[in-house]
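Suppose a classmate hands you a notebook page containing two proteins, each written out with its sequence and a corresponding row of structure tokens. How would you begin to make sense of it? This section walks through that situation. The first entry is reproduced here exactly as it would appear on such a page.
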Amino acid sequence: MTNTWLPAVLALIDQANSLDPNTEVDETGAAVPKELIYGRRMSEMLARFAPEADAVAQAAVRAQHIQRWTVPRSQYPMDKVGYHQWRTGLYRVHADLAAGLARQAGADEASVERIAAAVGKRNLKGNADTQLLEDVASLVFIEHYMLPFAGQKPDYSEEKWVDIIAKTWRKMSDRAHRFALEGGIRLPEPLLPLIGKALNPQ
């Protein structure tokens, strides 16, 4: 069921993400603010993967990376601990922004709290909203971003790549696994051998 506040909150999220100074070339060849195109890809994947998703899920998925550029990685130590601190900080920022925009759009407090919990990555595996968002994010990463990311990390070993793919896979539900393997997404062909090794370790 689509709630009356959903179009308003999606527009507000897009408006916030349109301020991203970083751009990415989309499928039409146009340069688009990076997080704006990411949010739209998340929504497009949700429509393919879980067309039954309710308004809360649709809002949370669109807000996954809301204004991500405002919390640069460089603000934290450039080590593993710093990376996790950065990610945790991002979850809080995204959740607070998404909740504020949902309230502005007229969402009820129960919906606002569900959106904040999902975007804040609370209780993965235990919260259906959080798991759905993680599934969609993982599917979007595999289809749109895994291959470009590989191009940015030529120094990564095969072992490291197998580990990255395996960690992504472990975050996903069985439903998302089936969707990915049964043609629901476009797998990055150059990385198929690594994906095979990650999913079928010897």
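The notebook's second entry, a different protein, reads as follows.
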Amino acid sequence: MKLRTLSALSLALCSTAAAQADLIQWGPVQNVMAASEVSTNGTLVTARNCWAQTFAAPTVNGVPFTAYAPPGWTNGGWVLTVDSTTWDAEYDALLDSARVTSGGSAGNPTGFGAINLDNLGTLTIGSTYEIQVWFCDQREGTPTNVLNDRIMTMSSALGAVVATGGLATNLSNVTQGPLSGPLDADPNNQSGTSDMIVGSYCIGTFTRTTSDPLWLLVEGSHPLPGNVLRPHLNAFQIRDITGSSLGTNYCTANVNSTGATAVLGASGSAVAASNDLTLEATALPPNSFCFFLTSQTQGFVQNPGGSQGNLCLGGAIGRFVGPGQIVNSGAGGVASLAIDLTQQPTPTGPVTVTAGESWSFTTWYRDSAGGAPTSNFSDGLEIQFN
């Protein structure tokens, strides 16, 4: 990357609105295929199976899911996997049932179903969490109501949400977070014991900075305009990933305006095929805009482009500067981003990270020196993917 390019890009650091750390930032939607997808990162806070009345609550990949009916989500059903299987009986049981909101009028798209996450486990201010959600429905339905084409989109809200019959009725009065990608009930519209894709899941992250209520939101839609439905959810879990980090830190960062050096960490999985990786920079100046850089080559460049920091990358440097990828450190000086390993940025376009590759990352952020605006870098973080 040319140094003048780094300087020009500093303008982007002051053009994006501050992100609310408590709101869930969603990673890419993934196909449900095997029990190993059930995350075991960090420490379990809660894991819920949103039906489970007809069988014992399952334990999947060592995670015990308890039966749960969110307030107002009084409908539901089971045998949603039909005869498709993940070849893990407990995972099949988790996916085989769902809860559905009962309030409001069914529509397409639906209103947002709301679940208060604070009531389900202790969420500590200053801690970072991961939430994983599942949606599955292999049933074919009818020609005018194709059930395996249903879509659920996740979001979140912070504040005093009013939920009637499970549906949020006052979203205009609270702060709503970004939307996830579409979770398809059956991405390949196939079923049977040879079916390899049984539904969709998505992982998001958030850092608690306030005691205001945090809500998981679910909106349903269908490609057939005349189809009506309500928000569905099969299962979800929340895990405390504070301090959980992958990779090896290297290189020396310079002190920033807080008197500390910014440190880059990562959580999730180093298995490239899992596509589950979140970068998190800590000890940043409060309310500072930043974005992440990556390369397969380590380096050390002092004060590039007039920065007061050290750039710990070399070679072909990619920048996470797409929609929603320029983030803010908030009051706590922490910034995170769930990245898509199938869209790893490079100067010549995105590539897919594969097993056996090693990638390095750093954080570039707004800072000040002697009261004058400038920029700085965190240390480097190398991750060996397998």
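A careful reader of the second entry would note: Residues 1-19 have pLDDT under 50 and may be disordered.
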